[in-house]
C-alpha cells in the first residue's frame, strides 16, 4: 500500500469512476466535487507502473474524533469525505495553500449516523439530540504512524506535508520491481530532513519517512544503538505513512434508520446528569455488535436516543437542600438526588411537572428526528421505548393518561355510596341531596365547557408517535399499579394493564436479584405468580428456541418440610436439570420469585402452606420430571393441552388459588440468567444498573424490534427453497 497520491497516464491508469456520486446536499457544502478522482483501494491493491507525487486526494485524507480523552477514532469513509469537502470548500485545504481567499463558513456536517454534527471551522463535533458540556475535538489526518495508523498532530502533519510537496512534488518514482529489490532503509542515508519543535523528520526516499524524537533520552539511546551497529531508523525512528491505510469511499455509509428507540432514565439523574447519555452509548455500542453479528442481512437499523428529562425541572428549587441537616451530608445529598425523585412523583404538587418534562422531551426528540430524516415516517419507521426504574412508571402514565385525580374521584364516589347506606336524620338527607344535585350540575357545566374547548381547538395526542414496543428494565411499575387498585382479571390480554391500541407489545425485563424490579404477569392472571418468567437467552446460545415457542415452567417448591417427602416433590415438579426448555436455578431460594414476583396471591401464602400447595399442585399436574407435553391420554392429557405461549390450562386446586383454562396471549416477564459465579448479595447491589452493557439484553431488544423483518426474510428463504 502506498502513502501518496498518484497521477496516472496511458496504459497504467485506472478508471475515473466511483467517487463522483456525492452531491452538494449530501456533503453539506457546495463548490467541490470528487468527480475526477479515481477509485482506489490501498489494502491489497496493485499500484500503476509509473507514479508521481502530488497533493493528497480527498479520499486519502481521513478525519478523526476523540471522546473521553481516549485515542483518536476514524470517521467512516462517507463521513470523512463529506467533512473533507466542507473543509476544502471553506478554503482551509488546497485553496489556502494556493493563496486564494477564504470561502464562506461551511455548514455543519452530519456524521455518525446523524447523531452528531461537525463544525469544520472550529474543528469540533457535538451531539444533535442531547446536550453535552464538553465538545468532541476532530482532527484532519494526513500523516500516520506505522502500525497503529494513529494520525500525527495536525500542526506537525501540515508542516511535514508542506515540506514533502515542496521537496518531492512532481517527482516520478521508481518502478515497483526496482523498489522491491532496492536496499533496505538501514543502509540508506537521509536525503532530506525537517526540524520540528520536539522532533525531526528524515526522508530516506520518497515513501520511506521516519520521525525521531529530539528528547535527551532519545538522543542518548540513538547514540548507544548506533555504536552497536544499528541504524538510526531502526533504533528509535517511527515510520510514517502519507495518506490513510484505507481510502474513503461513498459506499462506506451507515444504513438508514428504520426503528428509533427512546431510552428513558429513572431516578438519580440529578446526581449524575450525563449518566443516561453514557448508558445509552453503552447500549448502542452493544447493540451494534449484536446487529453486525446476527442481523446484518436485515433492512432494519435501530438507533438509540437518550431522553434526559430530569435536569430541566425546577421542582422545589433548593428547599429540600435547605432543610437537610449537615451531618453525613454526602449520603443525604446522594439520597436527595436519587430517592427524592420517587417522593416528587408521588407528590400531587410536582407529579405533573415530571410527567410534562418527559412528555415534552419525547415529543421534541421525535419531531427533531423526523425533521432531519423526512423519509422515516414515509417509509413506516417504528418507535420503541426502553425505560429504566421510575422512568417506566412515568412513561406508562404518559401513554395511558393515568392521573391521580381519577383515583380521588373514585374514592369520593365510594364514600358517598357508604354514606347512603348509613342511617341519617331528615336534615342530613336533605343537605346530602342538595350536595348531590350541586355536584351533578357542576359536573354538567364542566363537561359542556370541555366540549366547547375541544370543538374550538382539537386536542393533540399526548405523544406524537405510536409506541411499537415498551421495554421496562428493573421496573417497579407493578407495585405502583397494585397500589392504585389494579387486580388480576379473567382475561389473558395485555389490554388489562396496557391497551394494544396504545402500545403493541409490553415486555418487562429484570435481573433476578434486582431489588427494585417486580413482575407484571400476576397482575393480569393471578396464577402466573406460580409460573416462572421466561429466561432471556445468552447472546452466544447456538440456535436458541424462539421465545413464543418456549413452554411454561413452574417455580420449584421451597425446601420446607411438607406432607410429602423431598423425593416425591422432586419427582412431581419439572426440575431445573431435566427441563430442556429452561435451565433454572433453585427458585425456592430466590428472593425474586417467592417474594417479589408474587406481589399478589402467593405473597399472602405462608411458607408451610405454600409448600403444601406447590406439592399438591405438583402431584396433580404431572407424574414425571419433564416439561408439560401434549398428546397424553385421559383427563390428565386434557388438562395439559399445551398452547404456543403462556401457561397450559391447570386443574382447579382445592385451595381455589389456581384458575383454569386462562392463559396469557403473550409472555410479558423476561428474566436475565444469573452468572455461575455471581454473588447474590453483591449482585443485589449492582443488578439494578447492570442492564446497559448486557449483550443478552441487546440481543433480546433487537430480536423483538427486528421480528417483522426476520419473519419476512425467513419466508423469502422458504419460498426460494
Distance between the termini: 43 Å
Quaternary structure: single chain
Specify the number of helices.
Answer: 25
> Approximately how much helix is present in the residues?
25-40%
| Shape label | elongated
What's the rounded overall pLDDT mean?
74
- List unreliable stretches of 5+ residues: 1-41, 43-50, 94-99, 176-183, 557-660
> How many beta-strand segments?
18
Q: What topology, given as strand order, has the largest sheet?
A: 13-12-14-15-16-18-17
Q: What Rg do the Cα atoms give?
A: 34 Å
Structural class: alpha/beta
Reported for the largest beta sheet, the result is: 7 strands, parallel
DSSP strand (E) fraction? 5-15%
Q: TL;DR?
A:
By secondary structure, the chain is of the alpha/beta class. It is 36% helix and 12% strand. The chain has 25 helices and 18 strands.
General description of the model:
- This protein has 25 helices and 18 strands.
- The chain has about 725 residues and is α/β, with parallel strands linked by helices.
- Among the domains are: about 55-90 and about 105-175 and about 185-240, no CATH class; about 260-405 and about 465-550 and about 665-715.
- It has a seven-stranded parallel β-sheet with strand order 13-12-14-15-16-18-17, with helices on both faces.
- Helix 8 links the parallel strand 12 and strand 13.
- It is elongated.
Amino acid at each position: 500500500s502506498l502513502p501518496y497520491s498518484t497521477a496516472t497516464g496511458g496504459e497504467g491508469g485506472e478508471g475515473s469512476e466511483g467517487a463522483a456520486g456525492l452531491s452538494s446536499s449530501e456533503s453539506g457544502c457546495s463548490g467541490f466535487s470528487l468527480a475526477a478522482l479515481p477509485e482506489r483501494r490501498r489494502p491489497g491493491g496493485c499500484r500503476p507502473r509509473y507514479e508521481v507525487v502530488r497533493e493528497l486526494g480527498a479520499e486519502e485524507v481521513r478525519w478523526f474524533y476523540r471522546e473521553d480523552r481516549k485515542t483518536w477514532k476514524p470517521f467512516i469513509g462517507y463521513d470523512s469525505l463529506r467533512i473533507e469537502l466542507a473543509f476544502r470548500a471553506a478554503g482551509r485545504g488546497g485553496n489556502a495553500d494556493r493563496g486564494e481567499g477564504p470561502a464562506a463558513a461551511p455548514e455543519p456536517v452530519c456524521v455518525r449516523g446523524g447523531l452528531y454534527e461537525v463544525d469544520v471551522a472550529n474543528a469540533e463535533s457535538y451531539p444533535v439530540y442531547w446536550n453535552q458540556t464538553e465538545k468532541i475535538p476532530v482532527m484532519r489526518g494526513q500523516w500516520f504512524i506505522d502500525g497503529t495508523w494513529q494520525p500525527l498532530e495536525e500542526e506537525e502533519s501540515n508542516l511535514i506535508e508542506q515540506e514533502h510537496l515542496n521537496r518531492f512534488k512532481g517527482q516520478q518514482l521508481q518502478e515497483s520491481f526496482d523498489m522491491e529489490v532496492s536496499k533496505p532503509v538501514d543502509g540508506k542515508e537521509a536525503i532530506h530532513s525537517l526540524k520540528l519543535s520536539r522532533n525531526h523528520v528524515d526522508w530516506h526516499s520518497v515513501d520511506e519517512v521516519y520521525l525521531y524524537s529530539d528528547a535527551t533520552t532519545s538522543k542518548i539511546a540513538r547514540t548507544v544503538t548506533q555504536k552497536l551497529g544499528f541504524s538510526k531508523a531502526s533504533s528509535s525512528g517511527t515510520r510514517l505513512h502519507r495518506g490513510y491505510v484505507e481510502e474513503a469511499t461513498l459506499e462506506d455509509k451507515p444504513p438508514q434508520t428504520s426503528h428509533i428507540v427512546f431510552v428513558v432514565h429513572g431516578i438519580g439523574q440529578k446526581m449524575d446528569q450525563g449518566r443516561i447519555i453514557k448508558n445509552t452509548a453503552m447500549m448502542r455500542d452493544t447493540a451494534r455488535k449484536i446487529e453486525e453479528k446476527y442481523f446484518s442481512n436485515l433492512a432494519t437499523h435501530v438507533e438509540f436516543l437518550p431522553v434526559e428529562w430530569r435536569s430541566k425541572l425546577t421542582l422545589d428549587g433548593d428547599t429540600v437542600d435547605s432543610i437537610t441537616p449537615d451531618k453525613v451530608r454526602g449520603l443525604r445529598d446522594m439520597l436527595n438526588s436519587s430517592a427524592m425523585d420517587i417522593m416528587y412523583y408521588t407528590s400531587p404538587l410536582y407529579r405533573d411537572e415530571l410527567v410534562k418534562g418527559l412528555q415534552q422531551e419525547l415529543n421534541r426528540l421525535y419531531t427533531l428526528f423526523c425533521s432531519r430524516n423526512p423519509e422515516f415516517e414515509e417509509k413506516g419507521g417504528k418507535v420503541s421505548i426502553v425505560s429504566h426504574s421510575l422512568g417506566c412508571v412515568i412513561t406508562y402514565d404518559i401513554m395511558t393518561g393515568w392521573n391521580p385525580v381519577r383515583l380521588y374521584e373514585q374514592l369520593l364516589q365510594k364514600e358517598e355510596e357508604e354514606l347512603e347506606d348509613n342511617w341519617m336524620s331528615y336534615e342530613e338527607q336533605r343537605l346530602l341531596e342538595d350536595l348531590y344535585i350541586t355536584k351533578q350540575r357542576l359536573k354538567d357545566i364542566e363537561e359542556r365547557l370541555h366540549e366547547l374547548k375541544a370543538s374550538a381547538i382539537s386536542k393533540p395526542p399526548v405523544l406524537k408517535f405510536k409506541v411499537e414496543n415498551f421495554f421496562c428494565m428493573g421496573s417497579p411499575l407493578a407495585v405502583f399499579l397494585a397500589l392504585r387498585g389494579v387486580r388480576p382479571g379473567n382475561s389473558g390480554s395485555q389490554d388489562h394493564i396496557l391497551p394494544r391500541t396504545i402500545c403493541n407489545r409490553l415486555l418487562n425485563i429484570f435481573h433476578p436479584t434486582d431489588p427494585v424490579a417486580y413482575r407484571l404477569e400476576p397482575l393480569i392472571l393471578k396464577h402466573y405468580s406460580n409460573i416462572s418468567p421466561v429466561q432471556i437467552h445468552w447472546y452466544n446460545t447456538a440456535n436458541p428456541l424462539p421465545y413464543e415457542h418456549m413452554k411454561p415452567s413452574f417455580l420449584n417448591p421451597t425446601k420446607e418440610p411438607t406432607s410429602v417427602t423431598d423425593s416425591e416433590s422432586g419427582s412431581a415438579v419439572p426440575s431445573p436439570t431435566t427441563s430442556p426448555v429452561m435451565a433454572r436455578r433453585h427458585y425456592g431460594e430466590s428472593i425474586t420469585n417467592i417474594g417479589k414476583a408474587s406481589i399478589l396471591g402467593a405473597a399472602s401464602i405462608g411458607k408451610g402452606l405454600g409448600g403444601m400447595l406447590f406439592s399438591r399442585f405438583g402431584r396433580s399436574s404431572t407424574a414425571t420430571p419433564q416439561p408439560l407435553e401434549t398428546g397424553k391420554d385421559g383427563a390428565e392429557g386434557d388438562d395439559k393441552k399445551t398452547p404456543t405461549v403462556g401457561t397450559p390450562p391447570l386443574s382447579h386446586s382445592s385451595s381455589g388459588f389456581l384458575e383454569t383454562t386462562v392463559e396469557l396471549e403473550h409472555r410479558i416477564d423476561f428474566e436475565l440468567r444469573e452468572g455461575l459465579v455471581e454473588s447474590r448479595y453483591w449482585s443485589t447491589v449492582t443488578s439494578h444498573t447492570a442492564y446497559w452493557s448486557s449483550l443478552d439484553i441487546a440481543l433480546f431488544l433487537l430480536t423483538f424490534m427486528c421480528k417483522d423483518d426476520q419473519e419476512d426474510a425467513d419466508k423469502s428463504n422458504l419460498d426460494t427453497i
